[in-house]
Protein backbone atom coordinates (compact mmCIF):
# COMPACT_ATOMS: atom_id res chain seq x y z
CA UNK A 1 0.00 0.00 0.00
CA UNK A 2 1.50 3.33 -1.01
CA UNK A 3 1.75 6.25 1.36
CA UNK A 4 -0.88 8.36 -0.44
CA UNK A 5 -3.47 5.67 0.33
CA UNK A 6 -2.06 4.94 3.78
CA UNK A 7 -2.09 8.50 5.18
CA UNK A 8 -5.91 8.94 5.07
CA UNK A 9 -6.39 5.54 6.74
CA UNK A 10 -4.05 6.59 9.55
CA UNK A 11 -5.63 10.01 10.03
CA UNK A 12 -9.11 8.43 10.15
CA UNK A 13 -7.90 5.88 12.73
CA UNK A 14 -6.45 8.68 14.88
CA UNK A 15 -9.58 10.82 14.62
CA UNK A 16 -11.77 7.84 15.50
CA UNK A 17 -10.15 7.61 18.96
CA UNK A 18 -10.14 11.42 19.40
CA UNK A 19 -6.48 12.26 18.80
CA UNK A 20 -5.88 15.99 18.49
CA UNK A 21 -3.34 18.29 16.84
CA UNK A 22 -2.73 15.81 14.02
CA UNK A 23 0.09 16.93 11.73
CA UNK A 24 0.98 15.18 8.47
CA UNK A 25 4.46 16.14 7.26
CA UNK A 26 5.79 15.09 3.87
CA UNK A 27 9.50 14.38 4.33
CA UNK A 28 10.13 12.55 1.05
CA UNK A 29 12.39 15.33 -0.25
CA UNK A 30 14.70 15.21 2.75
CA UNK A 31 15.00 11.50 3.51
CA UNK A 32 14.74 8.28 1.56
CA UNK A 33 13.89 6.28 4.69
CA UNK A 34 10.19 7.20 4.73
CA UNK A 35 7.80 9.58 3.01
CA UNK A 36 5.59 10.92 5.78
CA UNK A 37 5.66 11.58 9.49
CA UNK A 38 2.34 11.85 11.27
CA UNK A 39 2.33 13.39 14.74
CA UNK A 40 -0.71 13.29 17.01
CA UNK A 41 -1.43 14.19 20.62
CA UNK A 42 -3.36 12.18 23.20
CA UNK A 43 -4.68 13.11 26.62
CA UNK A 44 -3.40 10.07 28.54
CA UNK A 45 -1.05 7.11 28.26
CA UNK A 46 -4.10 4.89 27.93
CA UNK A 47 -5.25 6.92 24.93
CA UNK A 48 -1.82 6.82 23.25
CA UNK A 49 -1.91 3.03 23.44
CA UNK A 50 -5.51 2.87 22.17
CA UNK A 51 -4.63 5.19 19.27
CA UNK A 52 -1.59 3.12 18.31
CA UNK A 53 -3.61 -0.09 18.44
CA UNK A 54 -6.37 1.43 16.31
CA UNK A 55 -3.84 2.65 13.74
CA UNK A 56 -2.39 -0.86 13.54
CA UNK A 57 -5.79 -2.50 13.17
CA UNK A 58 -7.04 -0.06 10.52
CA UNK A 59 -3.82 -0.24 8.49
CA UNK A 60 -3.89 -4.04 8.51
CA UNK A 61 -7.59 -4.04 7.56
CA UNK A 62 -6.78 -1.76 4.61
CA UNK A 63 -4.06 -4.12 3.40
CA UNK A 64 -1.06 -2.27 4.81
CA UNK A 65 1.79 -3.68 6.85
CA UNK A 66 2.85 -2.76 10.38
CA UNK A 67 6.60 -3.19 10.84
CA UNK A 68 6.89 -2.36 14.52
CA UNK A 69 5.54 -0.42 17.46
CA UNK A 70 7.69 1.12 20.18
CA UNK A 71 6.90 2.83 23.47
CA UNK A 72 3.68 1.08 24.38
CA UNK A 73 5.14 0.07 27.77
CA UNK A 74 5.08 3.61 29.14
CA UNK A 75 2.67 5.15 26.65
CA UNK A 76 4.07 8.68 26.83
CA UNK A 77 5.30 8.43 23.23
CA UNK A 78 4.26 5.57 21.00
CA UNK A 79 5.83 5.17 17.57
CA UNK A 80 4.16 3.04 14.90
CA UNK A 81 6.41 2.13 11.97
CA UNK A 82 4.39 1.51 8.82
CA UNK A 83 7.32 1.57 6.42
CA UNK A 84 6.79 4.67 4.30
CA UNK A 85 4.85 6.37 7.10
CA UNK A 86 6.00 6.82 10.69
CA UNK A 87 3.33 7.70 13.28
CA UNK A 88 4.24 9.43 16.54
CA UNK A 89 1.52 9.53 19.21
CA UNK A 90 2.58 11.66 22.15
CA UNK A 91 1.41 13.25 25.34
CA UNK A 92 1.39 17.07 24.98
CA UNK A 93 4.34 17.65 27.35
CA UNK A 94 6.49 15.11 25.49
CA UNK A 95 5.44 16.52 22.14
CA UNK A 96 6.32 20.05 23.22
CA UNK A 97 9.70 18.97 24.59
CA UNK A 98 10.85 17.09 21.46
CA UNK A 99 9.08 19.40 18.99
CA UNK A 100 9.32 17.01 16.05
CA UNK A 101 7.09 19.19 13.90
CA UNK A 102 9.55 22.08 14.02
CA UNK A 103 12.51 19.74 13.56
CA UNK A 104 11.14 18.23 10.35
CA UNK A 105 9.31 21.32 9.08
CA UNK A 106 12.44 23.51 9.22
CA UNK A 107 14.14 21.12 6.83
CA UNK A 108 11.46 21.44 4.14
From TrEMBL:
This is Ribosomal silencing factor RsfS. One of its GO terms (biological process) is negative regulation of translation. The gene is rsfS. It is found in: Cytoplasm. Coiled coil: none annotated. Functions as a ribosomal silencing factor. Interacts with ribosomal protein uL14 (rplN), blocking formation of intersubunit bridge B8. Prevents association of the 30S and 50S ribosomal subunits and the formation of functional ribosomes, thus repressing translation. One of its GO terms (molecular function) is ribosomal large subunit binding. The keyword tRNA-binding does not apply. One of its GO terms (cellular component) is cytoplasm. Keywords: Cytoplasm, Repressor, Translation regulation. Interacts with ribosomal protein uL14 (rplN). InterPro entries: Iojap/RsfS/C7orf30, NT_sf. The keyword DNA-binding does not apply. Belongs to the Iojap/RsfS family.
Amino acid sequence: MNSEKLVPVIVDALEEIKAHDIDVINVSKITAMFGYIIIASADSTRQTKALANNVQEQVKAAGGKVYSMEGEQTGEWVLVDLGDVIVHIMLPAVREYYNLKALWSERN
